[in-house]
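Minutes, project check-in
Item: structure for the 278-residue chain
Input as provided by the requester:
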Amino acid sequence: MIVEHSAEIRSKTPFYRHLYVQVLAAIAAGILLGHFYPELGTQMKPLGDAFIKLVKMIIAPVIFLTVATGIAGITDLAKVGRVAARAMVYFLTFSTLALVVGLVVVNVVQPGAGMHIDPASLDVKAIATYTATAHEQSLTGFLMHIIPTTLASAFAEGDILQVLFISVLFGIALALVGKKAEPVIDFLQALTLPIFRLVTILMKAAPIGAFGSMAFTIGKYGVASIANLAMLIGTFSAFAEGDILQVLFISVLFGIALALVGKKAEPVIDFLQALTLP
């Protein structure tokens, strides 16, 4: 019944109301602006940066709520351990494979070559932190970094691994407490609805972010960079099967978790079904 209703609403929606159509139109507008008014196009960069910050802002709460409530709803914690172990083995295996494939492809195909970007014009500070951490951090240091200084610091700094670590521990704690934790679980489940609705609202700004990013890119590097960007995106899409498998695997796990939770997961299921609407 819900699927039929969704299909009926989708069929009555004008094509220009679809988000992907708006994003494509915004990209085209950004290309035109960057090409004919390059100085003005480069000034549109804050629009793209703002959208990226909005997305990053909501990632931590979404992870915490979905993981914590999902684990809290599983009565058999042994299942959580088995799933976590399998997920870790899968993650390590396919992440290593993805790194090997990525290194081979980037050296053979060389996507992005030909854009003639002056390295001096790039923001070195933006990547300095990551390169320094990669050189200095050992395996032990990496594992220690997963443990946050405080519960709040993980969310304040936006460290996804730390947020995931807290989410798993908090979900296990809720499951161990039992019935006395039901008010907390009910609150978190209720909070999930407005948080996911907020995600839907933020996605409405995707055309603005796409417009600003494209206008800046074309204004700064020229319209010829479109071909190089297309090559880069095409290469990523063609050789990112590892990431696609990870997304598929996570989606299956999330579906299993929803099935194990039962009726308490109905608000989340209803929301996911609502997301299929334009």
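Outcome recorded: Residues 77 and 172 are 8 Å apart (CA to CA).
No further action items on this chain.
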